[in-house]
Amino acid sequence: MQQRQAPSAADHILGGPLAGYDPGQFFCELLGTTAAPDPATIDPSRRVILQRLAEMDVEELRRRAAVAETELFNLGITFTVYSERDAIDRILPFDILPRVLTAAEWDRVERGVIQRVAALNLFLHDVYHDQKILRDGVVPTDLVLGNANFRPEMVGLDVPHGTYVHVCGTDIVRDEHDRFLVLEDNARTPSGVSYVIENRHMMARVFPDLMAGLAVRPIGEYGMRLLGAMAEIAAPSAGEPQIVLLSPGIYNSAYFEHVFLAREMGVPLVEGRDLVVEDGSVWMRTVAGLAPVHAIYRRLNDEFLDPAVFRPDSVLGVRGLMEVWRNGRVAIANAVGTGVADDKAVYAYMPRIIRYYLDQEPILANVETHICREADGLRYTLDHLDTLVVKPVGESGGYGLIIGPHATRVELAAFREKLLADPANYISQPMVRLSVAPTLSGDGIAARHVDLRPFAITGRDTWVLPGGLTRVALRPGSLVVNSSQGGGSKDTWVLA
Amino acid sequence: MSTTLADSTDAPRSSQLLSRYAGSIFWLARQMERTENLARILDVTETFTRHARDEEGWLAVVRINADEARFLSTHAAPTAQAVTHFYVLDRDNPTSIAATLAQARENARLLRPLISTEMWSQINVFHNRVRQLTAADIAPSHLSQLCADIKQACQTHTGITEGTFYRDAGWTFYMLGRQIERADQITRLVDIKYHMLLPSADAVGSALDVGQWHALLRAAAGYHAFRRIFPRDMTPAMVAGFLLLNHGFPRSLVHCVRLAQGTLAQLRSSYRLRGADAALERLEDLSAVLTETSIDLLIARGLHEFLDWVQRELIGLHTTIAARFWPAEG
Fold it and tell me: What is the ipTM of this complex?
């Protein structure tokens, strides 16, 4: 270790490999502030972590990162990319510097997520039953009934405890004003929770000295909680309900996660071909013959679930499953048809949906969203086109949107025409200045943008896994955290 | 939270093994055992042919695996280089170590909900290592070491499995797969010697021949056990008799068949799986022959023909087990 001069107060907070760290104008998740960190007021646990990091050197961090990478590969914590000739295993890049949330910060997120999940479930129950929210004009009827993800098969179907979204992954970012903002509600089959828990295991192996003595909230009970929720919704059974996890199989990129969850729950991981509907029940094929199944945690999209009802060419699903579910002889999580609630168009109405059902102000705000089908929203969008991101509501994956600040005058003019031709198809949002976290990069520790996906489990009640998946955009300046586009992940610590 | 599965007794659940899992675990055991035995066969062949530049010796490996047609359609001659490449590196050859391990690894992936993390991780690392092998690794000077490494990795798998695999119906199917594959493989290992002898029957009892029987025993890890039982003498009949009919030798045919019978009986009694009855019945002929026969009788009637028949019986047994426990869906 190098001999250093007696450190100044600021040095004391950002020493060693953190010496040149600069979060710019963004909120820093490790320092807990957008401004320069104040040694007098910084959270004591954050201070301990920073001091421990200051005593390491970058080479030591790199060595540990390499060990972690090898371990992830050897343990097969990978997603497989199949080509004609080969199956290539890739790991989700793992950054060994944790993202830290204080108890107070987490409290905001947790309460906000619980509120949001409650509103989503009430909304789904309403649109598949009385549709009061449509009749009251809070959400436009055509937006819901004309939505590709609205499933008429769900109308009138009652689900236990009114829960449709048993597992929810809410994508949240933090802006420079320390506001947590919801980007997206993932209410269908959100993935990533296996990385949350494996990242923690990995930190315990390669970085035990960083966490030692700190009260970081544990996350190991996720599987038990999920199993508990499944038992709460399971169809009536003679003894213990038989719960299974339904996966599309080993060729699915999230197969590792399916395995992980089946193991954590201690239930069989089944594929559609393992299940059969007979005599009004669902059965699995075992060496002893057919055995009854009472609840299915499915990681298969709606349209593949039952070829008798949805895509007739699906070989991944179970013929007749919907009918058994409708008759209450099996439970399915997440429910079919939740896609109508996490849709981009409906997202814009979420604050109103929360107020409508819960009579509460949203704890977590949306990113400020202008609904172009409304006159005010359209006018604002047209007036600020060069500063906004404008997105078509029906598309996903970034298709058909325009990023005002990055667009040429000609592009903006052309987009204006498209927008005016069909305003109802668009929403607009300002560019969000995502928070950053110190991340090991080619040039030492540098600031990289992050988001957060907490996971909420709901049976009778909602429980939120402390922390969640922190995704990090590994490219300098990039705001894209997706693994397909150079994103990685971090361990997320919630301090007790 | 309501009660969880942990509260229930394991008896009713352990027979709720998915059919697909049973098939995969059975195959996983066979594939790992097959990999180990292929390494043993290549190692002993390398020893047999070391001084002879004997293509016949390498052709024997192809013959006992019943791969002649496929091998000769893509190779001009069964040279050491061609055969070792075919059986170690060639991923287009489904009976190669590389391909067998790839299948084992896919099965292990399917079975990850069932097997221990240690089992999975070791197979994953082993598979990745084998995938990176190149022609240099199978050069004559390296082959023996490579075979030793592969054998050891397979035995590591066996040890991890023994030490970590939960003992339920899944374990029983694993054991069944291992026993059937071991039984099959010992017949192939003995048969390779038969093929070796074929072109030079007059060399029986010569110094070279004794050396080859030594090598065969060593390949089966049976040399020292054999010596303890027969300290003074070593005839081909004694070696073949030991490898096929000795009850104490863990790789002998009779030992493996008896274990398989016991395992099937356990499926019937502990897990109340009636499908085991048909498999036990299927095994009766082989079992009866093994009880009544002697090595001299087998040699007199034709050892090769006997070994062929045993292999067919074992295939029949596998088919019966598959039909009862993991029938094609529908």
Answer: 0.88
